[in-house]
Amino acid sequence: MALTIAGSDSGGGAGIQADLHTFAAHRVHGTSVVTAITAQNTRGVTAAESVGVDLVRAQLDAVLGDFSVVAVKTGMLGGEALLALVAQYGEAGRLPNLVVDPVMVTTTGDSLFSGDPAAYLARLGPLATVLTPNLIEARQLLGREITTVDDMREAARALATYGPRAVLVKGGHREEAASGPAPSGGLHEDALASGGHREHGGTRGSDEPGGARSGRGETGGAPRSSGEAASAAGDSGSAIDVLWCDGQMLELAAPRVATRNDHGTGCTLASAIAARLALGHPLPQAVSGAKAYVTEALRAAADWRLGLGPGPVDHHHAHLRLAAIAEAARRELRRCPECVRPAGVAGIRWASGLRASPRPRVASVAGTRRAPGLRASPRQRDAERSVSAQPDHGGGRSSPVAMAGRSGATGRRRTSPDAIAGRGPLRRNRQAATVAVVFRSAAWFSGTRRRLGPSGPPDSTLTAGSDTAAPLTIRTVRADRSRFTLNHCKETA
Ligand SMILES: Nc1ncnc2c1ncn2[C@@H]1O[C@H](COP(=O)(O)OP(=O)(O)O)[C@@H](O)[C@H]1O
Ligand SMILES: Cc1ncc(COP(=O)(O)O)c(N)n1
User: Fold this and answer.
1) CATH of 2-315, one of 2.60.40.10, 1.20.1260.10, 3.40.1190.20, 3.30.565.10
2) How many Å lie between the centroid of ligand 1 and the Cα of residue 414?
3) Is the CB of 239 under 6 A from ligand 1?
């Protein structure tokens, strides 16, 4: 359950509309407090009016008095009156996991905040779990020029002194990034030397996707030249954000997507962070995962022509991609109900010791998302489907990418009693089996399975992706020896 406190964008690309799309895409219930109504499209804002303080207060009370809100995102507040009101609720401890996007100006250059920028820092800075200014907002908040990545780091540090737990300075507006090598000491050198995700003053973080990956299933991390990085992703440079979090400086780099459709990226990023906090992700992972989500949303909408100016991003890219993968799986499996075809890549393949049954209900992965550790609701239980496994007598390969587009194993496989009883090949690999689902479209799933303690339930992680999209992880927490129940999926890049 998450709450957005933001303005309405009649064009549907930013503000409340983008936030609710983003919450929904994360399968987080979204509540909303509307602070302003803007008449807006892809070309700009033609009119805007703040909602009165009393009505905003009433909305806050209605939502907070009934729902257990776990994370909150603030966007357009319009002026100091609503800023003060929201701050009061924050000071009263009623706005948990607060993501503050200090919206002051739109991508099209229209001003959305009439007050003193410093008031943002004074009122919401100390309450924010994370503050997410773009370059223009960081400039306004600090009253100084911010051009290089070094400047961004300094800005993040300076903003952190106002009290937020973390500051994310977003580099989406750094034109240099898209147009070739940055000046010495600038963007490219920093980003690429680090493989995209670099830390200062701390240990290297997890293999989080928002940083180093190209969005094509690569794990990233290796130093690359700027040319390699750009062409590997089919993009034109890097979009670098700087995150100051718990005393550590991180750089989050993603391939810069060549698109004009970047309306609402800041709102989308902030609400994706809030959604991920609501799902229980730790803060740095919530931020880097949210950035990866935005990169994919930009990519998926790059060809859209909605309106005459910068259009919105595709908030539902992950669902649609998974649905497309699932549909491809269904098609393949319908065609070949009982065997894995040698010529077409079809079916599910256990890469180390196991093979899925000929008729896995792969489609279920698209609709079974819920937070790790949470009990399934009856409806979620209904939605959860299982994928059954059987021994792979043909052996396996470990790389799903290598397998994609290649022949599957030959022959007809039937469910073996050995597999169900945990004997045979399954037993051999009980501690860590890898599974991959391979389709003709070069979409793939892969993952590892391990047992939680000697007698605990197996815990499995599967990754789904395609040659054009970043991987997704599908986490399974309930599985017996022959069946998986997919009950959570999240993006990993
Ligand atoms: N063309 C792009 N390609 C990839 N990432 C981008 C692009 N434009 C913006 N971003 C990313 O989108 C997020 C929002 O950034 P930004 O556009 O600077 O915010 P805002 O919408 O508040 O101005 C950041 O993570 C930024 O790096
Ligand atoms: C109501 C509203 N809130 C926020 C933005 C910022 O949009 P962007 O993320 O493109 O800077 C906007 N254009 N409209």
Assistant:
1) 3.40.1190.20
2) 50
3) yes
Closest CA to 312 of 76, 111, 17: 17
- The answer to whether the pTM exceeds 0.80 is no
Q: Which residues line ligand 2 (CB under 6 A)?
A: 6-9, 14-15, 38, 40, 75-76, 103, 106-107, 112, 263-267
Cα 97 to averaged position of ligand 2 atoms, centre (Å): 21
Q: For residue 237, how far is its CA from the centre of ligand 1 (angstroms)?
A: 13
pLDDT bin (cut points 50, 70, 90) of residue 327 is low
Closest CA to 165 of 266, 248, 269: 248
The verdict on the CB of residue 299 being under 6 Å from ligand 1 is: no
Q: How far apart are CA 99 and CA 105, in angstroms?
A: 18
Residues making up the chain, counted from first to last: 493
> Which ligand has the shortest distance to the CA of 34?
2
| Beta strands per DSSP E along 150-301 | 166-169, 197-200, 238-245, 248-255
Residue nearest to atom 3 of ligand 2 (CA): 15
| Among protein residues, the one whose CA lies closest to atom 4 of ligand 2 | 15
pLDDT grade, residue 236 (50/70/90)?
low
Q: Ligand 1 mean position to 91 CA, how many Å?
A: 30
pLDDT in tens, 130-181: 999 999 999 999 999 999 999 999 999 999 999 999 999 999 987 644 433 3
Q: How far is the CA of 465 from the centre of ligand 2 (A)?
A: 31
Nearest by Cα to 482 from 386, 381, 390, 416: 390
β-strand pairing of 458-466 with 483-485: unpaired
How much distance in Å is there from the Cα of 327 to the middle of ligand 2?
35
Whole-number Cα distances in Å, 324 to 215, 328, 331, 362: 17, 6, 10, 11
pLDDT-above-90 percentage for the chain: 48
Domain range summary for the chain, segments of one domain joined by +: 2-315, 319-491
80 in Cβ contact with 119 (< 8 Å): yes
Question: In the chain, pLDDT over 70 holds for what percent of residues?
Answer: 52
Give residue 106's pLDDT. 84
